[in-house]
Amino acid sequence: MHPGIALMNFMPTLSAAWRDRNSLLCVGLDPDPTRFPAHLKGRPDAIFEFCSVIVDATADLVCCFKPQIAYFAARRAEDQLEALIAHIHEKHPGTPVILDAKRGDIGSTAEQYAIEAFERFKADAITVNPYLGRDSIEPYLAYRDKGVILLCRTSNPGGSDLQFLDVGGEKLYERVARLVDTLWNQSGQCALVVGATFPAEIAQVRALTGNMPLLVPGIGAQGGDIESTVRAGCTPSGDGLMINSSRAILYAQDGEDYAAAARRVAQATRDAINRYRRQPA
Q: 63 near 55, Cβ under 8 Å?
C-alpha cells in the first residue's frame, strides 16, 4: 500500500457494494454546463453542485461513481472535482470513485499521473491506456489499495481500427485481456474496460479473464443492450460488472427536479440490470 493516502481498498469495497446494494450500476459524472438546469447556470460552483446533488440522489443505487476528468479540466474546475470526490467519500462511505482519465505514458510521467489521480484527487481507481506496455502501468500498481482499469475493447466504433488487429493468431483486445490477466495483475488490482456495444467481445473477455471486474460503458445514450451485456459479462456469483450510464441519468430532466428524475432513471436501470443478473446465492 502506498504510504499516507489510503481511503479504502478498491476491490473489496467494490465487491461489498455489489453485494450490499444489489447493484452493478456505475453512474458516470460527465458534467456539461450547457445542459444544466437554468437555476445553476452562471454559478461558479455549478459543476460541483450539479454532480453532488446527482450523487446524493443515486448513491444507494450504485456500485461506484465515475467522474470523467475532461469535463472538469476543460472548465478549470479541477478544484470542484477534488471537492466532489471528497464529498462522495464523506457522505457515502463505501462508494468507490473511478477517475476516468485514460492515462497512458512512459513510467516517469505515469508516476506523476498516478500522484494526480490517487494523491491529489484521491480517486479509488483510474482508467489507463495499456498501449505503452507493462512498465507504463507499474506506477499505478504501486498504489496497492487502488484499482487500475485498463482499456481493452472500447465502445466507440473506431476502436476496431486497432483492437481487432491480428497479433499472432489473436485479436489485439484479446492479447490485452490475456496479458492483464496472466502477467500484469499479480496484485489483484486490475480490471478491464469492455464496451456494452460489443456483447460478443464482453463474453470473450470474460472467458479469457475469469472473474476479473469489467467496467462496461455504452448503455443508455450509446445504445448498448442491457440484457446482452449482463448475460455476456456477469460472473457465476452474480457480479463482476460495473455497467456505466452517464448522460441518460444525468440529463433525464432539465428542470429543478433533475435529481429526482436522475434517481428514477438510475433505479430503473439498476432494476433492468438485475432482471438478467445471476443472483448470488
A: no
Question: Which class for 5: exposed (0-12), middle (13-18), buried (19 or more C-beta within 10 A)?
Answer: middle
**What is d(CA 112, CA 127) in angstroms, rounded to the nearest whole number?**
15
Structural domains in the chain, CATH included, are 10-276 (3.20.20.70)
CB-side neighbour CA atoms (13 Å) of 10: 29
* Residue given cell 491480428 in the structure block: 166
Torsion over CA: 30, 34, 35, 41 (sign): positive
- Amino acid at position 111, single letter: E
Stated pTM of the model: 0.94
Per residue in 62-81, pLDDT tens?
999 999 999 999 999 999 99
- Tell me which residue of 72, 61, 124, 70 sits closest to 98, measured CA to CA: 124
Catalytic residues: 102
Residue 221, pLDDT > 80, answer: no
Question: Position of cell 487502488?
Answer: 146
Work out the pLDDT band at 177, boundaries 50, 70, 90. Answer: very high
Mind listing the pLDDT tens digit for each residue in 121-149? Answer: 999 999 999 999 999 999 999 999 999 99
